[in-house]
Design brief:
The structure holds two protein chains of two kinds.
Chain A lengths: L1 H22 L14 H4 L9 E5 L5 E5 L22 H10 L8 H14 L1 H4 L23 H4 L3 H10 L13 H15 L6 H8 L15
Antiparallel strand pairs in A: 1-2
Helix pairs in contact in A: 3-7, 4-8, 7-8
Chain B lengths: L1 H29 L4 H9 L18 H4 L3 H9 L1 H6 L3 H9 L13 H12 L24 H33 L10 H11 L1 H24 L17 H7 L4 H4 L14 H8 L11 H10 L1 E2 L4 E2 L22 H7 L4 H5 L16 H10 L9 H13 L15 H4 L2
Antiparallel strand pairs in B: 1-2
The chains are: A mainly alpha, B mainly alpha.
């Protein structure tokens, strides 16, 4: 009999302890709750977006952020230097000498459209008229793709602008790779010239490209 | 894909011509010397009519700074030509703005420029809107723990019972004294309880069984909740609202979490991504300038000078979703290849003011999804296409789900 009461008592105590441990704090939105073996959840090896414990030989610990800048002089795999500087001369030179290295194919334009929907549309609007939802909150809307200034913009200058940013627009180099930037520009061309780029504009901005079969109708932006 | 492209092209060209026509018409209309409209369309991206610098200098009192109004008209029309002519004031402005040149506005007519200058000289007085008082962030709802209620009721009952017991005891003794009977000795609560339990064995057994069952189920629930972060909703160093950004402004998730298609982690955006918009937006609808000022502090941005001149410091966000280190998970795999929507695992962030963990993210939850998610073939990859064919032959008639291609093997995620 005594044994049974002991067992009951033990179960009751365990039960209330586990309830106490687990149910309290569950409603505090700032607490994730109880972790089973936290050292397996948060390992000493570096994980993205977290802190790591660094143990010193004297038994003390330090926490360090795992999101860090690369060591000075680090070059990413596949990195190619961009020769045009972030100033007026670089901008002008990019307009003159920089051309889309990718062929204008349907797949590339479609990919450009998808990227445009993710990275551009909230300011520039779905048709590039500068009527995106965020544009209304900026001091001024971005210029229209079909306006006189942007219709005359060579593709090299577009690339330069996406890379470094211009005026209120910031640099999107951290979000879009070089190829992706060119694909977005292909889609912008499609928005500007829905019937295909006129020959004059092709010759103007993409010099030797033969992939674009523009249907010139003598209509110039 | 091909057919869609061709079909929509015709449609789009029609829409486009209409738009183009509307746009050209609009320009003619605007030429009616509407300085304010012209300014907003062409200049406001870089200039404010006040003192503050946006990209270019603020234009308050500009007409008294520049050499003459004719000079200003020339500058607006084609600043490049003015600089080339070797104008001293042009050089000075260029140097003040780190050599950044203004856009050339060859398309503006003289009448347009006149209207613009008139507007810049006498901008409408902006009445500062009264700052919203009170924190906009929703107050954390107070949730009362049901366990606390039960414990409170039990404690109340115990107090009530002991008071009643004391009352009956003293009343009995008053009665005994009146009738000259010997006084009862006060018995301990425990002995009395034991006596009562001895007399009501059945009810005691029932109570014990119920209490034990309750304890065990509560304990089981509690133990099952260990390591499950569902509902974890930590407050962040900046009161960032997903509802405003992804909901009201319809910014795509990937604009900020751009690693999702090329990396294991979707990534927390670095401050330069915030600044892509917040360079121009310094006031939010709920918290005003308070929270956005924290971005400026992190980026080292001086909003008055319009330049990154201050020291930078990282924003230490609190991580919401944390899978244990012993499990492998890749966003790239699920989003790029598996074409899963963000909301499947993260819930509808467009309605969440504060981000929280929406799903339990336990192993059982992963496996359930792997068992039910069908995998279509992969047309552009012959290897996976042939694999898919082999699997369809093996599991005749059954849908090919993730688990059929090894999606619930231990070593798929734990290695």
């Amino acid at each position: 009999m005594k044994k049974i009461t002991n067992i009951i008592a033990v179960i009751a105590v365990l039960g209330s302890v586990s309830i106490a441990v687990t149910s309290c704090g569950k409603h505090d939105p700032n607490s994730p709750g109880v972790e089973y073996m936290p050292d397996m959840y948060r390992s000493p090896s570096f994980e993205t977006n977290s802190f790591s414990l660094i143990a010193h030989t004297d038994g003390t610990f330090d926490t360090i952020e795992t999101n860090r800048l690369p060591v000075a002089g680090t070059i990413a795999r596949g990195f190619l230097p961009y020769p045009y500087s972030n100033d007026t001369t670089g901008y002008a030179n990019a307009g003159k000498y920089l051309h889309d290295p990718l062929p204008v194919t349907e797949a590339n334009v479609n990919e450009g459209e998808a990227l445009f929907g993710k990275y551009c549309v909230h300011c520039h609007g779905t048709t590039g008229q500068g009527d995106g939802k965020v544009a209304g909150k900026l001091p001024g809307p971005p210029p229209s793709y079909t306006g006189p200034v942007l219709m005359a913009l060579p593709e090299g200058k577009m690339f330069h602008t996406i890379t470094y940013g211009k005026n209120l627009m910031g640099s999107h180099a951290s979000q879009l790779s070089k190829d992706e930037r060119w694909k977005v520009i292909m889609y912008i061309h499609k928005l500007q010239y829905p019937n295909g780029m006129p020959v004059a504009a092709v010759a103007d901005s993409t010099a030797s490209k033969k992939e674009i079969k523009g249907k010139a109708k003598g209509k110039k932006g | 894909m091909d057919t869609r492209f061709n079909k929509s092209q015709k449609q789009k060209s029609v829409i486009f011509s209409v738009l183009l026509f509307a746009f050209l018409f609009n320009i003619n209309f605007v030429s009616a010397q509407d300085g304010e409209k012209l300014f907003k369309q062409n200049c406001a991206v870089c200039h404010s009519v006040g003192k503050n610098k946006v990209v270019g200098p603020g234009l308050e009192g500009v007409t008294s700074r520049v050499p003459s109004e004719e000079w200003m008209a020339k500058w607006i029309k084609n600043n490049s030509a003015v600089i080339k002519s070797g104008d001293a004031y042009a050089k000075k402005i260029l140097a003040e703005n780190n050599g950044m040149q203004m856009t050339v506005f060859a398309s503006l007519s003289d009448a347009d420029i006149k209207a613009l200058i008139a507007y810049i000289k006498n901008p409408p007085v902006v009445v500062a809107p009264v700052a919203q008082t009170g924190a906009g962030q929703e107050e954390a709802e107070k949730v009362i723990n049901p366990l606390a209620i039960i414990l409170g009721v039990v404690a109340l009952l115990i107090i009530l019972i002991s008071i009643l017991r004391g009352l009956t005891f003293s009343l009995k003794n008053v009665q005994n004294e009146k009738h000259g009977l010997p006084l009862e000795r006060k018995q301990g609560a425990w002995t009395e309880l034991k006596a009562w339990m001895g007399a009501h064995k059945r009810s005691v057994a029932l109570i014990v069984i119920f209490a034990l069952g309750g304890f065990l189920s509560a304990a089981w629930d509690g133990l099952m909740g260990i390591g499950v972060y569902q509902g974890y909703k930590p407050s962040q160093p900046i009161a960032f609202s997903h509802k405003i950004h992804a909901g009201d402004n319809a910014i795509n998730c990937q604009y900020c979490h751009s690693g999702v298609e090329r990396s294991k982690t979707a990534g927390i955006p670095s401050v330069n991504v915030c600044m892509n918009c917040h360079k121009g937006i310094s006031k939010g609808p709920i918290t005003g300038t308070k929270e956005i000022a924290k971005i400026y502090a992190a980026a080292g941005w001086d909003p008055d000078k319009g330049a990154y001149t201050k020291p930078q410091q990282p924003i230490i966000w609190t991580k919401v979703h944390n899978l244990p280190d012993f499990v492998f998970f890749s966003h790239q795999q699920h989003v790029k290849v598996g074409k899963q929507q963000c909301a499947t695992c993260h819930g509808d962030l467009t309605t969440m003011t504060i981000a929280q963990q929406f799903t339990p993210m336990t192993m059982g939850w992963c496996i359930n999804c792997h068992r039910t998610t069908e995998v279509p073939g992969m047309k552009d990859n012959p290897y996976y296409e042939s694999l898919h064919k082999k699997l369809s032959e093996k599991y005749k008639g059954q849908p090919i789900t993730v688990d059929k291609m090894g999606g619930i093997e231990c070593a798929k995620c734990h290695y």
